[in-house]
Design brief:
PD40 domain-containing protein, Tachylectin-2, Chain A, 23 strands, five-stranded antiparallel beta sheet, WD40, four-stranded antiparallel beta sheet, mainly beta, 6-blade_b-propeller_TolB-like
């Protein structure tokens, strides 16, 4: 999204939606959509497969599943090849697809963890996934971490309920500090307030960011002094206040997210075409809508 478009949106968001309802469409292909809660999609840049989170209707019991496109449509989702013994969520691919970041309560050193930590899995040149590695402190803490995403500015953004924040839960960011480990800091008052912030998704061009707080999705932009004060997206996006798990298309012109529809349909994917229609999410010729 260009800075000009952001400023135009920010100027009208307070009084009216930034998008019409025609710009926001459900994405419910057979095999992916179900009567459970689907969220947090990530498309593999190397294979085109989708990785996503499926949980119970009450958003419990998170698992990362994967499905690939076949001549008959999306295949039956199965556990991710690096799946562990805990709850796992929030998959995100690095550029090129060599590494994938996620969160997990999987066991470490034979001890099952109760808190969610940031992990990274990497595959070799043949595409085989190795054993995931848990990031060290201070990236991971004694609290929970969520939604690890790397911005164009080189920072790893994530949510956490660790102490020392500006509110109940905050967005934090981390950067490698040479050979001495990681430097971690609060992402600042432009993103964080006195309530809960969980997920921060930098745009591919690094100029803007979508933020998920306890009452829906917000937009902020990069300035010379940091991230601008966030602005809540309109009712076409924040229809229920349950919108989570945002994912930009590679161009930044579209945004996928999940929304809790309650009842039989539970959590489903939606796509916001921000700046004109584009051929995204990736199509699967044999797929039909549920």
């Amino acid at each position: 999204m260009s800075p000009l478009r952001f400023m135009l949106l920010a100027g009208v968001l307070i009084s009216q939606p930034a998008a019409s309802r025609d710009d926001v469409t459900p994405w419910t292909p057979v095999g992916i959509a179900s009567d459970q809660f689907e969220s947090h999609a990530a498309f593999d840049p190397a294979t085109g497969a989708i990785f996503f989170v499926r949980s119970a209707k009450d958003f419990s019991g998170w698992r990362i599943l994967t499905s690939r496109c076949s001549p008959m449509g999306w295949t039956q989702p199965v556990d991710a090849p690096f799946a562990g013994d805990g709850v796992e969520a929030d998959p995100w691919f690095e550029r090129g697809g060599r590494g994938l970041w996620f969160i997990s309560t999987r066991s470490t050193d034979g001890v099952h963890r109760k808190d969610l930590d940031v992990w990274r899995a990497e595959r070799d040149v043949r595409g085989r996934w190795g054993l995931p590695k848990r990031l060290p402190a201070p990236v991971n803490s004694t609290g929970n971490e969520w939604f690890p995403r790397i911005g164009k500015d080189g920072w790893l953004y994530f949510g956490s309920d660790r102490p020392g924040g500006l509110g109940k839960t905050d967005i934090w960011r981390a950067r490698r500090n040479g050979t001495r480990g990681w430097r971690v800091e609060n992402a600042g008052a432009g993103l964080n307030g006195p309530g809960d912030e969980y997920e921060a998704l930098p745009a591919p061009d690094g100029r803007s960011m979508v933020l998920m707080a306890s009452d829906g999705l917000y937009l902020t932009r990069a300035t010379r002094t940091g991230w601008s004060k966030r602005v809540k997206l309109g009712a076409a996006i924040n229809a229920t206040g349950s919108e989570i798990g945002a994912l930009f298309s590679p161009s930044g012109r579209s945004l996928m997210f999940a929304r809790d529809l309650k009842g039989r349909r539970s959590g489903e994917f939606f796509v916001w075409h921000i700046n004109g229609r584009e051929a995204w999410p990736p199509s699967c010729p044999g797929a039909t809508a549920r």
